[in-house]
Amino acid sequence: MNAQQAARWERRRRIGRTSFIQRYFALGFGTAVALLLTLVEYLTQNTVNGWYFAIRLVVFPIIGGFVGTAVWQSKERGYEEYLQHNRQKPKKKKS
Question: 93 lies in a domain?
Answer without folding.
Answer: no
